Amino acid sequence: MKKLIIFQLLLCSSWFCLGQSIPYGQSNEVLYFDFPINSNLYWSVCYYKPINYNDSSELIFYFHGQGGSGSDIYSLLTDIADRRGAMLVGPTSGTAPWSIARVSDTTWLPTTLKKLYKHILSRENKTFINTRIVGFSAGGQCVTRYMLIRQGINDSIPI
């Protein structure tokens, strides 16, 4: 009987979480993905969703520089998001003491970015969202490397 109740609670809680869209304004969450280099790593993801966000709005991924964090979107990009009606997503490698823009991390970035994109699609109940990627300093280098790697990997993110 206990197993049945626990299963029902888990089923209901997972259904409730999957059905929630990302709230308007500033928010964040911690996501655990299966990283090829270390399964104990997680991403802390900061979101900014403007009030004028709608079904045809785009998504902007922001990669921070060395020593930065995903929360940099709140001070750097919210004006752009408000004008364009775009949702901002600023991921940060949570347990890693380095920027996600480190050269060795770029090799697994396409796979992990695709998982993050699919997570956002499921949260927003959409089949696709047009996407832009911006970066500052080392984050800009990360974007360049990602776009070079992406040529050989079909990751299905509409950039």
Major sheet characteristics: 5 strands, mixed
The number of helical runs is 5
Proportion of helical residues: 25-40%
**β content, as a range?**
15-25%
The stretches of 5 or more residues where confidence is low (pLDDT under 50) are: 1-17
The strands making up the biggest β-sheet line up spatially as 1-2-4-3-5
Total strand count, please? 5
**SS-based structural class?**
alpha/beta
The first-to-last residue Cα distance is 49 Å
**Mean residue pLDDT:** 78
- Cα-atom radius of gyration: 16 Å
Helix and strand succession? Answer: HEEEHHEHEH
Instruction: Give the overall shape, derived from the CA principal axes.
Output: globular
Give a verbal description of the structure:
The protein has helices spanning 2-19, 73-76, 78-84, 109-124, 138-150; strands at residues 25-32, 42-49, 59-63, 87-93, 131-135. The model is unreliable at 1-17 (pLDDT under 50). It has a five-stranded mixed sheet. It is an alpha/beta fold and 159 residues long. It has five helices and five strands; from the N terminus they run αβββααβαβα.
Q: Can you tag this structure with a few keywords?
A:
5 strands; alpha/beta; 159 residues; 5 helices; 36% helix; 5-stranded mixed sheet
Q: Short description, anyone?
A:
The protein is an alpha/beta fold and 159 residues long. It has helices at 2-19, 73-76, 78-84, 109-124, 138-150; strands spanning 25-32, 42-49, 59-63, 87-93, 131-135.
